[in-house]
Design a protein that fits this description.
- The protein has 13 helices and eight strands.
- With about 425 residues, the chain is an alpha+beta fold.
- It has three domains: about 20-40 and about 60-105, Acyl-CoA dehydrogenase/oxidase, N-terminal domain (Butyryl-Coa Dehydrogenase, subunit A, domain 1, Orthogonal Bundle), CATH 1.10.540; about 145-255, Butyryl-CoA Dehydrogenase, subunit A, domain 2 (Beta Barrel), CATH 2.40.110.10; about 265-410, Butyryl-CoA Dehydrogenase, subunit A, domain 3 (Up-down Bundle).
- α1 packs across α10 and α2 (about 25-40) runs parallel beside α5 (about 90-100).
- The two termini are about 45 Å apart.
- The structure holds flavin-adenine dinucleotide.
- Flavin-adenine dinucleotide (FAD) binds near residues 145, 148 and 393.
């Protein structure tokens, strides 16, 4: 950390940086993981292979996920037969920290591993678990998630894609949107309306749909922030026949899966935001040594220095709030911190990117300019545009504010 930042941060925080210690058992777990990662992690060349969407699995990524599975490092909290080692919650937190520090992906199909596999485990029949769960964990199949529709995003319960039960199969008609990786996925976990007369939360079911079924039409559309990576799709369903045994969970009880599926790993998600903000801060500090539009080192600008120091404080606050929420979670207590971390985390990273692009001036518009490959990919402007994506899924910033106001602060509904 440069002196200018350390001085300002110490002035505001008292002391820097915060370090928390773990017990010997946890540190032994960390040491085992770190030495395993040192010996087995994907190479730079593998990580550089272009990834075309969140359901595109290059060969090396399939092998890597399989290696994690075989060695009990894919979902450490699960038993060995499911790619884990029955790790305690604290050990799982250490695992997520170490993976995130190194930016090592667990899976190139995060919705499959993070949302759909736990849903299959919780709600699947024995046959569904056999057909889908292990192949998902071993990266033999890739998934997309069909929740959002043109008229149903934040208000998911308004979804209209209709599934009519006709003997031994459903007939599905309708449209999904923002379906990440649909064009590369083998299967879709699709939320459909099966009872149009019931109150809107009660007539929803979840179907496992084979993306190769006649009548399924995924139409990818490009993203403004990265022309080389096409993840979003509209998916149209026209008279799609889905076998009845592909109903996941009970008929008309799909709403439970919406909450349940997205809740998985939520207690650990803050680690992503905390480390993203740390990484963004390091990029800002490095930017300080570059020359600005006026020909002087950017760090000589006092507003830039004050902003970066304030982001340092925010980044420390994120980490500490995450640890505090996690320790409450371990004791079985409510952890309102988790509702705040997504909002605070995604918006903090967004403000950091804006600070970088303003400090760099017009040079930030050029993907080939100094500072390219700032934050995961691209220039400061590209990185800034990408941060908008982080403020939407899993509940937009406005929805998070509603939750905090009503459930954390106890304010009346607006
Ligand atoms: C990177 C990314 C990946 C995604 N992947 C998937 C996927 O794989 N599968 C899938 O199904 N969906 C996916 N989505 C869609 C995502 O779930 C929706 O974007 C999200 O639920 C918001 O819905 P919407 O876009 O329809 O916005 P809307 O719900 O229409 O909201 C529009 C605006 O109104 C505001 N608003 C809405 N309701 C309220 C309210 N009650 N109070 C205050 N403000 C409100 C919102 O905050 C927002 O600013 C993805 C989105 C992103 C950005």
């Amino acid at each position: 950390m440069p002196t200018w930042l350390a001085e300002r941060a110490t002035q505001w925080l008292g002391s820097v940086p915060v370090k928390l210690k773990y017990g010997p058992k946890e540190e032994a777990f960390r040491a085992e993981l770190v030495s395993w990662l040192e010996a087995n992690s994907p190479t730079k060349e593998q990580l550089a292979v272009p990834r075309l969407s969140s359901a595109h699995l290059p060969d090396w990524a399939r092998e890597w996920q399989r290696t994690l599975f075989d060695n009990g490092w894919l979902v450490p909290g699960w038993p060995p037969e499911l790619g884990g080692r029955n790790a305690s919650p604290t050990e799982q937190m250490i695992y997520f920290e170490e993976m995130k520090k190194r930016e090592i992906p667990r899976s190139y199909n995060p919705q499959g591993l993070g949302i759909i596999a736990p849903s299959l485990l919780d709600y699947g029949t024995e046959e569904q678990k056999e057909q889908f769960l292990l192949p998902t964990l071993k990266a033999e199949i890739a998934w997309s998630l069909g929740m959002s529709e043109p008229g149903a995003g934040s208000d998911l319960a308004s979804l209209k894609t209709r599934a009519v039960l006709d003997g031994d199969h459903f007939v599905v008609n309708g449209q999904k949107v923002w379906t990440s990786g649909a064009h590369h996925s083998d299967w879709n976990m699709c939320f459909v309306r099966t009872d149009p007369d019931a109150p809107k939360h009660k007539g929803i079911s979840v179907l496992i749909i084979d993306m190769k079924t006649p009548g399924v039409d995924p139409r990818p559309f490009p993203e403004l922030s990265d022309p080389h990576y096409t993840d979003f799709n509209e998916v149209f369903f026209s008279d799609v026949i889905v076998p009845r045994e592909n109903l996941l969970g009970e008929l008309n009880q799909g709403w439970a899966l919406a909450g349940g599926s997205l809740a998985h790993e939520r207690a650990m998600l803050w680690i992503d935001y905390a480390y993203d903000s740390k990484r963004a801060l390091n990029h800002l500090v490095a930017l300080g040594d570059q020359l600005g539009a006026d020909g002087r080192p950017i760090k000589e600008d006092s507003k830039f220095r004050a902003d970066v120091a304030s982001f340092y404080v925010d980044s420390q606050a994120l980490m500490l709030m995450g640890y505090r929420g996690f320790s409450k979670f371990l004791k079985g207590r409510a952890a309102p911190e988790h509702s705040m971390l997504k909002l605070f985390g995604s918006e903090t990273v967004q403000k950091m990117m804006l600070c970088g692009l303003e400090a760099q001036g017009v040079a930030s518009l050029d993907d080939d300019a100094l500072g390219a490959k700032v934050y995961r990919t691209g220039s400061w402007i590209t990185s800034y545009m990408r941060t908008f994506g982080g403020t939407l899924p899993g509940g937009t910033s406005e929805i998070q504010r509603n939750i905090i106001a009503e459930r954390v602060l106890g304010l009346p509904r607006g």
